[in-house]
Design brief:
It comes from Rhizobium sullae (Rhizobium hedysari). The chain is α/β, with parallel strands linked by helices. Helices cover 50% and strands 16% of the residues. It has a single domain (2-182), classed as P-loop containing nucleotide triphosphate hydrolases (Rossmann fold, 3-Layer(aba) Sandwich). α1 crosses α9 (174-184).
């Protein structure tokens, strides 16, 4: 893996990037980060949940259709894509200039998911498919709580297999996220 340890180096690379992948556990702030960077650099923002995975009523789109939609999007010249699903890393990583991996502590992720639910209760947030109102259940909270232990090894293996030379910056605190955004400057 091409790990980046310096936020300044990552900011420099981001300023020149055309295709950015933002991954991490739900509730960690990856969507907010991706939308902010998209606005600053006029990159098309792609929510994997909205564009590829979900149909109204929380119905999961068929996997072949998901992959076809993802393959079409990644061929675009410029984008920032918000989503961790490793089953499409073979399509996404080879086209990615840099990965931002938001790796917040699980309590922060749980708080982020619950506070988002409270904010959007009964409504659909903009990065979700219309007809998929915000929800939190025990299965979702368990996914968040166990993400580092169960899912991070899968993420690491998929990155090694499909994008070993793609630079990756891990953001493990809100302070690091703010530092990165400060270094990127204000929107044009």
């Amino acid at each position: 893996m091409a790990w980046l340890s310096d936020v300044r180096d990552a900011a420099h690379r981001l300023k020149a990037a055309d295709r950015v992948l933002v991954i991490g556990c739900s509730g960690g702030g990856k969507t907010t980060l991706a939308r902010t960077i998209a606005k600053r650099f006029d990159l098309p923002f792609v929510s994997m949940d909205r564009e590829f995975f979900w149909l109204p009523g929380w119905v999961e789109r068929a996997r072949p259709e998901q992959r076809a939609l993802i393959a079409k999007w990644v061929r675009q010249d410029r984008w920032i894509m918000d989503g961790t699903n490793t089953s499409s890393f073979d399509l996404r990583l080879p086209r990615t200039d840099i990965v931002l991996w938001v790796r917040m502590p699980r309590l922060i992720c749980v708080w982020g998911a619950v506070s988002r639910w409270l904010k959007w209760i009964g409504r659909t947030r903009p990065e979700m498919t219309p007809g998929c109102p915000e929800k939190v259940d025990l299965e979702f909270l368990s996914y968040i709580w166990n993400f580092e232990k169960k899912h991070s090894p899968i993420v690491l293996a998929a990155m090694a297999a499909h994008g070993p030379d793609v630079p990756v910056l891990q953001l493990k605190s809100r302070r690091q996220m703010r530092e990165l955004l400060d270094l990127l400057g204000s929107p044009a």
